[in-house]
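thread: overnight batch results

M.L. [08:02]
morning all. the overnight job finished for the chain we discussed friday. pasting input first so we're all looking at the same thing
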Amino acid sequence: MSQARPIVSVVMPCYNQGKYVDEAVGSVLNQTFQSFEIILINDGSTDEETNQILGNYQKPGVTVLHTENRGPAAARNTGIQYARGQYILPLDADDRIAPTYLEQAVRILDENPNVGIVYCEAEFFGEKTGKFDLPGFNFPGILLGNMIFNSSFYRKADWEKVGGYKNDFRGWEDYDFWLSLIELGREVVRIPEVLYYYRQINSSRSNSMTRQSWIEDYTHLFRNHTELYSQNISALFEHIIDLREDVQHTHARLNETLKLLFEADEQRQKAENQRQQAEDQLRTIQNSRFGRLYNGYVKLKKLLGQS
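M.L. [08:03]
and the structure it wrote out:
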């Protein structure tokens, strides 16, 4: 690791995640690109183990800051204020990155001055595994839903221009921040390779969103970026119309399916009635005088065949 001014500052908020810190820090120390620093922010942890670990944490290139608990947005802003790097990579203390993430992202940012966000493909680990199946970035699609996770690279200069992360979101501070960078006219690049690993635990913030919080956060997002949304209002209405058409098509397919099921049930009931009628006729014949004579004939034939 270079002792000169680092190119990348990895900003790592930590709230009661001390048991995961070594894994996250280790994934950064293991990078093929070594011009970086790690700024670890103890965001007012209440967990004794975490405070003990961070109270005397000594790893190469790691600086630990201790603050009162103010949430991940404020913790990132604090870390970035201390950052010396040209590029910023937020990394939660319970996640990890692949060894070439820094190398590939720095190359893209160095070669493309107007690129403002670089991210990659991702996978879950922990209590849930598998591909983190986000759609590739597109605009204006991102106005309808975030498609860039928080551990993405950007320029510290751009962070300064937009005033950093806003502290009044309950989990969408990164989404709001990406829209701010897009408002600067910055381009977005996704590396087509899994280089980020997102730990899933029961207390993950993304698992606690309610319908009301979705509504409130989208409203807040719109108010923060009214001009961006207004300029692309046709895309929003197009999405609403697409959803309406999808609902209508789904309703039509459902009605057709129900009709087929009803017809099949009628045919089944008709076949069942015919079977029941045949069984009734058979019992009638068996109980008639002719049926008794026929059964006696069959038994006599069997006896004669055995003798």
